[in-house]
Design goal:
- By secondary structure, this protein is mainly α.
- The protein is built from 16 helices and no strands.
- The protein has one domain.
- The radius of gyration is 21 Å and the shape is globular.
- The relative contact order is 0.14.
- It comes from marine metagenome.
- Keywords: Membrane, Transmembrane, Transmembrane helix.
- One of its GO terms (cellular component) is membrane.
């Protein structure tokens, strides 16, 4: 009965229907992406085997740790500014686009300087460089920010659906033709390019004009002043999330990276619920923070309650069926992933509210809190891995 009252209160929030519809588009796309990506990804993992799959996961994780440099922590800050100052759209999009290009170049430089300090062979380093080339196309994600701010994420979903379909077909063709590992590596770069083209087409189709985007030094200064803590916080989070695979590779081998990656794939699948809810409702959180904090606190409490309950239910399900989940999906070759999944699933209880919590902190302008907690989590994770 109490949950029913909460649901009624949540529904009665002014304008919530608009944001619920937006969330529905995002959730629908994410559910489809999760289902297709899991199916195709598992098919790829079965084809490659733990060793090659581990090598692919390692290269992707290596690049992933430095992706924060390419984003510069701008994502939520740009959305916030677009909500607050829609009349500055062209300057905000143009400035953030160029900043992301600069960030991608910075990321490449750091990767090139870091690679010599690893024990990687030439093949592994070539995989890392190929994957990193696709990051530059993520600059076009500023178009996504525009649609987030105007609560029109369905247009982004169109582009993402095209990218997902194309990527899945290519991977299946590669498996059928028994392609070498390097072709699967190249798909990462191809994915980013297809999504960028889809976003540009969708933006132009909705009367947007990328040639009207303008650089503004003052806007860049404002964005970077607010985003730098988020950039380091995001990097700390990526280190926290991906350093395990790098350390397993350095301390053991690629086979065990594959075993760990299989478990992590299933662990992170349900996190899309938290991510999409937080992403879609972020403009509403910004609005309520400025106009009605009491309503914001009510909304935050209700959403947090549902997120926490969902996390507990998923953890219970994993504990009951973890062995079956691994054998049914990745196959008997990955059966050792079961116990890893069992351990990882406990993190869902804390992670399910992470994106919502991060959105509230960003809306309130306290990004440094995210920075400090993320750095602490990353350091703790590294120390525990050594232990």
């Amino acid at each position: 009965m109490n949950l029913l009252k909460k649901a009624i209160l949540l529904k009665n929030h002014s304008g919530f229907r608009k944001y619920f519809d937006n969330t529905s588009w995002l959730l629908g796309e994410r559910i489809l992406r999760m289902a297709v990506s899991l199916f195709v990804g598992i098919y790829v993992a079965r084809y490659l085997g733990p060793e090659n799959y581990g090598l692919l996961s390692y290269a992707n994780s290596f690049v992933g740790i430095f992706v924060a440099l390419a984003t510069l922590g701008l994502d939520d800050v740009v959305v916030r500014e677009l909500v607050k100052n829609p009349e500055q759209r062209e300057e905000l999009l143009g400035t953030s686009f160029l900043l992301k290009i600069v960030g991608a170049v910075l990321m490449w430089v750091v990767i090139i300087l870091t690679v010599p300090f690893t024990n990687n062979d030439i093949q592994t380093n070539s995989f890392i460089m190929i994957i990193s080339l696709g990051v530059v196309f993520q600059a076009f994600n500023v178009i996504d920010f525009n649609f987030q701010a105007t609560v029109k994420s369905k247009y982004v979903v169109y582009a993402q659906f095209v990218q997902l379909t194309f990527s899945s077909i290519v991977k299946l063709i590669l498996i059928i033709n028994e392609a070498a590992l390097i072709w699967f590596v190249s798909v990462y770069c191809l994915d980013a390019m297809i999504l960028a083209l889809g976003l540009v087409f969708t933006y132009l189709h909705n009367s947007g004009n990328i040639f009207s985007w303008r650089w503004n030094f003052k806007v860049a200064k404002i964005l970077l002043n607010d985003s730098w803590p988020l950039m380091f916080a995001y990097m700390s989070y990526l280190i926290y999330a991906k350093i395990d695979r790098l350390m397993v590779m350095e301390m053991i081998d690629e086979y065990n990276v594959g075993i760990y990656s299989a478990a992590y794939t299933l662990y992170e699948a349900p996190l899309f619920i938290s991510l999409m809810v937080g992403k879609s409702l972020y403009p509403l959180i910004v609005k309520y923070y400025r106009e009605n904090k009491d309503r914001l606190y009510d909304l935050y409490f209700e959403l947090s309650s549902y997120m926490t309950l969902s996390a507990y239910l998923i953890v219970i399900f994993v504990y009951l069926f973890y062995e079956y989940l691994i054998s049914f999906t990745f196959g008997i070759k990955y059966i050792e992933s079961g116990e890893v999944l069992l351990f990882l699933s406990l993190g869902l209880i804390l992670m399910f509210n992470a994106f919502l919590r991060s959105n509230y902190i960003t809306a309130s302008g306290n990004q440094k809190i995210i920075l400090f907690t993320s750095i602490f989590s990353a350091i703790l994770n590294i120390l525990l891995n050594y232990i």
